[in-house]
Amino acid sequence: MWYEKYLKEYEDKVVLVTGGAGAIGGQLVRCLASNGTKEVLILDDMSSAYPWNIPKGTNVSFIEGSILDDEILRHVFKKPIDIVFHLAAHFANQNSVENPETDLMVNGLGILKVLEFSHLKEIERFVYSSSGCGVYGLESKMPYEEHDISISLYTPYQVTKLVGELYTYFFHNLYEMPITNARFFNSYGPGEVSGKYRNVIPNFFYWARNKSALPITGTGEETRDFTFVGDIVNGLMAMGIADSAVGESINLGTSVETKIKDLAKMINDLTQNDSGVIYTKPRDWDKKKNLRASIEKARRLLGYEPATNMKSGLKSVDNWFDSNWENIKRSAEF
User: Fold this and answer.
1) The pTM is what?
2) How do beta strands 223-224 and 258-259 pair?
């Protein structure tokens, strides 16, 4: 596979993953741990993660705590950390509209603190999880190219994800910190528990398994660039090592659009849910009818190539729900 050339570079590394108990962070930790990384540190406050879903391994250490807590950060950064993957975040759009101050604290002050500690540690690479669904605006042209960002945004989450990129560039420009920004597009896959502020795919699976109609906000003709978590993790692994990624923001998507009504049908078919769909009005902040990433830069700089299509990706999620259904039912919060 295209990313395998990067894996051996992690063998002597100590890697910190903030938000490493979450859906994407957890898969990243498992990939790092299973490919011989010397030590993987997880820092997570468990605000949107669950003990049963925390990655485990002989080379994995879990620290429960907040990126806003200086004492916790001092404790974590006593370790000989080489690479930081910063995935901890206040997620996501609706949550940020309802809780804008918390969003600013976690996504703004939080990344600033982690960058400050990383700077003092003189780390080899800082990889930040930004949002391709957030930093591009209505005036940005599809497929979204990395230079075509917007400052006319619609939610605090979109604002603070862009702020995070601005802070990484500040540390890169002033201190020559080797940073790179990964712009995720509609990540989905095993590991994401359903809930009020979670993404559409785990929520559709939850409702479908309960034999409920799947609620579509809008007409169903809206499209998203759904990207399997394994492909995003492969991109992150490359960004943590490739010299070509330093000082860059890079889309991690598929450049394929899927209609929400087609997504709903695929999930209803997989789960044998006959309840169909219901349509509700769009949320006030949800202005982007279509999303599609350009991944040419990722291909050029990393060799990136997404390998999982929607059919096989959704089947993987369905299997994960099968294996973890009792835990998911206990943990899902709506």
Assistant:
1) 0.98
2) antiparallel
